[in-house]
Amino acid sequence: MIECMYHRLGRDGDEDVFASTDGTRSNWDPEIQHGSPPLALLTKAIEELAAGTGLRIGRLTLDILGPIPVAPVRVRAWVDRPGSRISMMVAEMSADRPDGSRRAVARVTAWLLAPSDTRDVARARHTPLVEGPESGLTHAWPGARGYLEAVSWRKQPTPDGDSAEVWMSPLVPLVDSEPTTAVQRLAMVVDSANGIGAALDPQQFVFMNTDTVVHLHRLPEGEDFGVRALGSIGPDGIGLTSAEIFDRDGFVGTCAQTLLVQRLP
């Protein structure tokens, strides 16, 4: 039974050490992690670093630097560009190679900005997304274990050729029984945009994302998030997934992912 995505093992110098659980296993390969758990864990590190600054996250960029093993990982965070109104913070995940040396496997770069009162001019470019009854198969990886068991995935009916819509919710905490913020819960599901907006059959093609870039014009709330996504495939094996992100109150931001597309033998 999956109880959380990571167990906290302690601290070593300036790094926090975590054990990766089965809830991080990718639908592409059970020996590596799905992108959402590392994005969420690194987002947690940034939020903890930013505590007390008065700044809030406006953009998160996850770069996947190599296969992320389902194994103990180390996380450190630092301020890359300090500022009272605009600051860049970075969190990095590393893991051991088989020979015992260490490599960076994922990095999240975040822009944090100082909030001010703009409620009188606040607007969203998309109307709220309303969840309805589920439609058909939940996703294109039926029977996949690991991460897809740790999230609720509710596909919505949409016309052929339109962006796909899915409502998602984490079913487990991120780290042990530690509180999980709404931004972290969103990060736990948003990397799935690539699978939601899949333009190709995963039985015939691999289309793995190298990054996930999330822009938030307002902070998300709650535990349920709607993702409306559509993939585009270029003629030379490179693709793009773009998505709009919603919570129960409406539109919160966007997501974009670069794809490596390869035909399966």
Question: How many DSSP H or I helices?
Answer: 3
Let me know the largest β-sheet. Answer: 13 strands, antiparallel
- Series of H and E elements: EEHEEEEEEHHEEEEE
- Uncertain residue segments: none
> From the alpha-carbon coordinates, what is the Rg to the nearest angstrom?
18 Å
Count the beta strands: 13
- Determine the N-to-C terminus distance: 34 Å
- In which range does the helix fraction lie? 10-25%
**Secondary structure category:** mainly beta
Mean pLDDT over all positions: 95
Task: Based on Cα principal axes, name the global outline.
Answer: globular
Assess the beta-strand content as a share of residues.
Answer: 35-45%
Explain what this protein looks like in three dimensions:
The chain is mainly beta and 265 residues long. The protein contains three helices and 13 strands; from the N terminus they run E-E-H-E-E-E-E-E-E-H-H-E-E-E-E-E. Strand 1 and strand 2 form a beta hairpin. 38% of the residues are buried.
